């Protein structure tokens, strides 16, 4: 990474020499390899490599960003000149600028063990995908496969600013997935399973992945509709995390500043039921979204977004913090072709005290949701309406499959009624345990 740091330092120095008041530069290098496997044979092998550099120049209250994948000296020199010219021509933005120097990460970056040097060949990836698909096809009732796949990738992020920050980190990712088909004709059903990890050794077994995909597809056979009405909904962990995602979209500083958030006036107020806690933790060792610093070079740490049901505040980068006259939170994100955005890292809904079985024990007639369809969520009003499929709950027990159902409510009401189970697992970028919400509207038969 030393060569990349030198390139970024030269870009910033050239920008300052050309008249910039401040500047930052970011480099992202990534490689990936993946295979697709279907019906017992190799279908495709893909690979990619990329190196992108982005330069942001600030002249007064004007900023411009230019990116390139060409590291030749003459190309980088032309990029600096082009960025300076653009910065002089664009309108002023009173909120743009680098993050405060006193908040930058000082000293060594936290050790998060994000990089695994294990080399996985295309042949091995093919074996992984083949094993997962074979296990899925071996489940009684599975009639076909939508294919499986496996991939491995690595990346490096290097960031430098003109006011003293320089940092870099590397990461890897490994994954495998399979989709199984059960039944025939118009009665066919599909389902999937996957595994992903920073380190190859942390992946689930391929046979387990395939078997679960097959069993889930078979369980969906014979699906029926529900009658329309009010019903208790149980969100399984693979869909409950979407509810947490809707929260973060509503508490970014940019959404609040624009007035386009259904929670814009709820800071410091109870938004969820008492006992509900939601955290963002970028420092989880081997976390799928861990990072030692944010997209503006700030030190980062674990933050409670919801504490005992109360909304603690907004997510900020430097621009939104200036606009709302608040402190930064270490949530700046960054690509090579645009200004800093806002994003969470390892976001999760903390587990509750009840097991999933206890959570649904008193439900006489309910709906256990395992899949959500469509994007019928209004971020301004909080209105929620999505297609769903899953299983009927009768007298506290999960029974026959259900599909072609719409569930609806408003996120404000859903958050207040949320009851959280104890089965939290970290499988995604956003994680949540099983969640119960009473009184939602179901539109079915």
TrEMBL record:
Domain annotation Metalloprotease TldD/E central: ranges: 116-221
Any single GO BP term: proteolysis
Metalloprotease TldD/E N-terminal domain location: 23-87
Family: Belongs to the peptidase U62 family.
GO cellular component, one term: cytosol
Pfam families found in the cross-reference section: PmbA_TldD_1st, PmbA_TldD_2nd, PmbA_TldD_3rd
PANTHER family in the cross-refs: METALLOPROTEASE PMBA (PTHR43421:SF1)
Domain Metalloprotease TldD/E C-terminal as annotated: residue spans: 228-444
The protein, known as: TldD/PmbA family protein
Organism the protein comes from: Gimibacter soli
SUPFAM superfamilies in the cross-refs: Putative modulator of DNA gyrase, PmbA/TldD (SSF111283)
GO terms, molecular function: metallopeptidase activity
